[in-house]
Amino acid sequence: MRSDPPVRLPAEQVSPVRLRRAWAEVSTRTTRALREPLVQFLLFGALLFLGQGLSASLWPTPADAIRVPATRVQALRQELRAQLQRPPSEPELQAAIQRWVDEELLFREAKALELDRADPIVRRRLVQKIETLIEAQVDTESPSDAELRALLDADPQRYGLPVRYSFEQRLYARGQRQEHLQRDAEAGLRQLRQHPEDSAPLGDPFFAGKRLNQLDAAAVRKVFGEAFAQRLVQLPTGRWEGPIASGYGLHLVRLSQRSEFQPATLESARARLSVAWRVARRQALLDQRLAQLRQRQTVTVDSGPVLHASQAGRGPDPEQLHEMLD
């Protein structure tokens, strides 16, 4: 097999003078290129990348390294000072730091075992913590008068002074009167209407007493029940009426005063409006954050065994139970 002869350059093309000229030209171009900002930036980035790679290979950092920040050390120092009522010594501070590190190690181990997901109490506590962090922004905000006015206009009944009732009552207890309950209550009503100011004891003892003053509708419902509160709205003043039923028995009632509803002003309801605004604002922040998180996640719900309507309220069949355990 024949090979081609080597290519030889003419002597004048490789003379020392030409080589020096070529080298000088290359050096000049290189120097000019190195002065360009873009070239300098690229070279610096390459050197930085190379240095980081070399550092990571020579001195690798554990992925699970624990760092105790200065803020945590200061917090531990302040906690010890409050407990000891004096500045802590260096050994005491080091012991507290070691306890914190031990807790961090156990915490990471628990997370590695997914105990934070398996335990519903821990799960709920973490959820409450993040909710608190999200809602904490409200503490730095203050509602404007326009926002408070909007709340007041949206529900004026909530913030005004409600209707209040002052009345007397006589109870005929169901447990004591038994089958004579209705008869005794009607007889007592006739007696009270004939002698409205008679101070003779009538009826049975009642824990709330015989005279009740300035109760709003919510308080009346709490003591006597919904049916009693609805009847109280319809009663005339100054006259004994009844019998009116409650969970305790039958009542004879004389309404002495019914105050009118007083609409609230912005100033009179400012404190309650501010509380309501903060509650609504916290919920709005939480809803906003949840909406952002939903956009970043894909949720898949696995369907479980279908429970037919005919099976509701009773346990699974033995065959179903066996399949569930398997």
Description:
The protein folds into four domains: 23-54; 66-113; 117-159 and 263-294, no CATH class; 161-258, Chitinase A, domain 3 (Roll), CATH 3.10.50. 56% of the residues lie in helices and 10% in strands. It has 14 helices and four strands. α7 (145-154) packs across α13 (270-296) and α11 packs across α12 (226-234). The model is unreliable at 308-316 and 318-326 (pLDDT under 50).
Architecture of the largest domain in CATH?
Answer: Roll
Helix fraction?
55-70%
Number of domains: 4
Q: What is the name of the CATH topology of the largest domain? A: Chitinase A, domain 3
Mean pLDDT: 81
Question: Major sheet: size, sense and barrel closure?
Answer: 4 strands, antiparallel
Residue stretches low in confidence (pLDDT < 50, at least 5 long) are: 308-316, 318-326
Computed Rg: 43 Å
Q: How would you spell out the order of helices and strands?
A: HHHHHHHHEHHEHHEEHH
CATH domain class name of the largest domain: Alpha Beta
Distance between the termini: 78 Å
What structural keywords apply?
alpha+beta; four-stranded antiparallel beta sheet; 14 helices; 4 strands; disordered C terminus
